[in-house]
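User: quick one
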Amino acid sequence: MIIKVLLIAGALGFGVLILRQRPGGHHLVLRRLAGLTVVVLGVVAILWPILTTRIANAVGVQRGTDLVLYGLAMIFMYTAAALSQRIADLERTVTLLVRELALLRGTAQGDPGSVASPSEEAADQDGRRPAPEEDDD
Amino acid sequence: MNPEPTPPAPDPRMDLGEAWVLVPVYNERPAIGATIEELRETFAHVLVVDDGSTDGSGERAREAGAAVIRHVVNQGQGAALQTGFDYLRTRTGATHAITFDADGQHRVDDAVRMLETAHSTGVDVVLASRFAGESVNMSRTRRWILRAGTAFTRHTSGLEITDTHNGLRVLSRRALDRITLEFPRMAYASELLDAILPAGLTYTEVPTTVTYTEYSRSKGQRNSNAINILFDLALRRIRSVR
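Assistant: Done. Structure below.
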């Protein structure tokens, strides 16, 4: 019974995690502590396997392996959520960089549609001169 | 309503202020040339944001007379439009931006009428509606999905509009200053609409015609994409409530 409460709380926690946009700085600390805890628990479980069953029974699960499996599922969900969040952050960053690059390069020389002022045109050309990657043709 | 007086226009084509047509392009080479040439017959300024095309769409647009800036990698239409907005705000004296799809589904005279509406009414955002106007060759499924999307967006944005994912829009400089698109993929269209009222902008809708050609249909949005859009929007709603 207790395990159900724990697992549901865990699952809901991940839901919140997915929806939160930005992980704050303290999350790094939490992640590291959680990682260390997992290592320690792992070592303990290897040395005294019977302990997992005792703990399992204490929270209402029959077998220790089941408890470990649940824990694994939770960790997997956390990893998936954290990674998707980081990737979303990276995508945002890439978009900003690509945009900045597009604006920096500006329009190519001699386009009749441009009304950029002469100084801006000059700046554009200055910016472009060392760029060898005009590989379009 | 519009604080800045219209500057005297040196170019006869610009008697409606300095309007820039903004065309985001991603791999539209078969259509982009004709679209730009047609626009250039009417508009002095056409800015193409080449969103990382690999088929030379950007070069084709440049040959056809557009100013072209380029995303080095594909970032999605919303990002391309925002880049265009940033360019117009920081590098030009544009009074209005007209967003226009590259595939030739919009009509240039609709864009002109919308620009005239922007000037005569002074509203910040002029939206095009396929449903108030007429749609040529629109499939029944597409019509139904767009209707449903419209009902949803009317609810979230609080706007009295009849169409939502129409690529043809006129935005005043004030609107460009106040609207920032951060959404990936196609959900930016709703993001833009949702931003209108909170940003204190005024809007109106003009009936227009959209032509669904074989080409635009093959290139256009899959209907299934509606689910992606809904997901992006739902996620944002939940996040903004937080």
